């Protein structure tokens, strides 16, 4: 139940939230600069833990509703409290409020009362601060708006609305209204036998509150403008890379399905992740991506076995660094890949117990596809497909990354001098 199912930094990067398959949310807080512990810079400690979702049973459909946290999204901080949205992937979204409670016990500063206490008890009233307590409470519950599996939540730049997307529909919510939402995309056909694709991910533009994109299982991305029509079934832009007919196979449609889509912080580009690669698209060019990075091309020859063990259906996420100059995504064997967009250099790193020691330097890993391999290489036949990194997050301003490997959370930062 403690297998991590989502990871998300807040807007400042001082808080990091994880959700797990048991419906629990754990929030980590970054330590402040400590002169007595110079090497503690960037350390994150547990700040709060609470149960977001509980398992339920839908008696009408005779289905169990899992408590697994599918997505977490922070809201921009407006005051001392922190707000985050979470969903269990079924039909319920929670808006949680995190706030500090400080209890200060003191008697009084009235001088007459102070003299009384001094004469009677021999003590002077003093202020006694107590430890801060963190309280989490569900402020709003947005329910019964989705029939299918929720795969995305995205907070709008207007800070008043957000979208939630399932396999066939995208709904627009107002943060203050819980009992209704507005359907902005509906791809459900009149006859379900005619269904050819499903929605896999959706996200609002970081700066334009009227623009959002959603991806499909066919490897296409549609950009929609809510100013054009109330129901955005007709897209404004359509992004698709034509497939080479010579390389088409039985697995082509499966591996081309997009599992994640993310706008760059600048809003100029967007990034998509399919099974084997990460692609960067310019919003002004629809016919092909401007950059393509192969994540684990060495698995192309293993697609048959990956299909048999269902790994081919794994949904990997991707993320940008704060300056949009680098991207990161996960792979198997607890490997994760980082790509520098400026130099086109890439590196493979491993999240393991050995590398989790304080101030340990991560060593690059290489996968060998041939018969003879070097000392530091690992054979593609030796990869552990049960160890996979599906969820990653990058600090919005610094080189600090969070990587979820099964039930372990690894946080790495750039080298401290």
UniProtKB/TrEMBL annotation:
Record bears the keyword Repeat: yes
Record keyword Repeat present: yes
Name used for this protein in its record: Serine/threonine-protein phosphatase 2A 55 kDa regulatory subunit B
Keyword terms of this UniProt record: Repeat, WD repeat
Lineage: Eukaryota, Metazoa, Chordata, Craniata, Vertebrata
SMART domains the record matches: WD40
Top-level taxon: Eukaryota
InterPro entries, A to Z: PP2A_PR55, PP2A_PR55_CS, WD40/YVTN_repeat-like_dom_sf, WD40_repeat_dom_sf, WD40_rpt
GO cellular component: protein phosphatase type 2A complex
Family statement drawn from the similarity comment of this UniProt entry: Belongs to the phosphatase 2A regulatory subunit B family.
Source species of the chain: Corythaeola cristata
GO molecular function, one term: protein phosphatase regulator activity
């Amino acid at each position: 139940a403690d297998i991590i199912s989502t990871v998300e930094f807040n807007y400042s990067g001082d808080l990091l939230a994880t959700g797990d398959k048991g419906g629990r949310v754990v929030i980590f807080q970054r330590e402040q600069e400590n002169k007595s512990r110079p090497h503690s810079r960037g350390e994150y400690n547990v700040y709060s833990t609470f149960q977001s979702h509980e398992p339920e049973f839908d008696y009408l459909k005779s289905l169990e509703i899992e408590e697994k946290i599918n997505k977490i999204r922070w809201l921009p901080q407006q005051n001392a409290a922190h707000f985050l949205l979470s969903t269990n992937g079924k039909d319920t979204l929670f808006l949680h409020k995190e706030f500090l409670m400080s209890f200060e016990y003191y008697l009084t500063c009235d001088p007459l009362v102070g003299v009384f206490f001094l004469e009677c008890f021999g003590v002077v009233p003093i202020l006694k601060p107590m430890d801060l307590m963190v309280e989490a409470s569900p402020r709003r519950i947005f329910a019964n708006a989705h029939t299918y599996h929720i795969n995305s939540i995205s907070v709008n730049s207007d800070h008043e609305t957000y979208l939630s997307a399932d396999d066939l529909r995208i709904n627009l919510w107002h943060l203050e209204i819980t009992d209704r939402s507005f359907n902005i995309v509906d791809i459900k056909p009149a006859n379900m036998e005619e269904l050819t694709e499903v929605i896999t991910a959706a996200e609002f533009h970081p700066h334009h509150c009227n623009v959002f994109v959603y991806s499909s299982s066919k490897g296409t991305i549609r950009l929609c403008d809510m100013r054009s029509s109330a129901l955005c079934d007709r897209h404004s832009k359509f992004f698709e890379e034509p497939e080479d007919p010579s390389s088409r196979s039985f697995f082509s449609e499966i591996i081309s399905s997009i599992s994640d889509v993310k706008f760059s912080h600048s809003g100029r580009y967007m990034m998509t992740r399919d099974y084997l690669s990460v692609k960067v698209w310019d919003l002004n060019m629809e016919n092909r991506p401007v950059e393509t990075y192969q994540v684990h091309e060495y698995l192309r020859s293993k697609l048959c076995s990956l299909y048999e063990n269902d790994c081919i259906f794994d949904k990997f996420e991707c993320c940008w660094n704060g300056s949009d100059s680098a991207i990161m995504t996960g792979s198997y064997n607890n490997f994760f890949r980082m790509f520098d967009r400026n130099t086109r250099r890439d590196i493979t790193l491993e999240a393991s117990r050995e590398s989790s020691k304080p101030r340990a330097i991560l060593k690059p890993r290489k996968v060998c596809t041939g018969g003879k391999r070097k000392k530091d290489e690992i054979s593609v036949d030796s990869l552990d497909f049960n160890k996979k990194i599906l969820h990653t997050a990058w600090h919005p301003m610094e080189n600090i990354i969070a990587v979820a490997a099964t039930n372990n959370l690894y946080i790495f930062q750039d080298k401290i001098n």
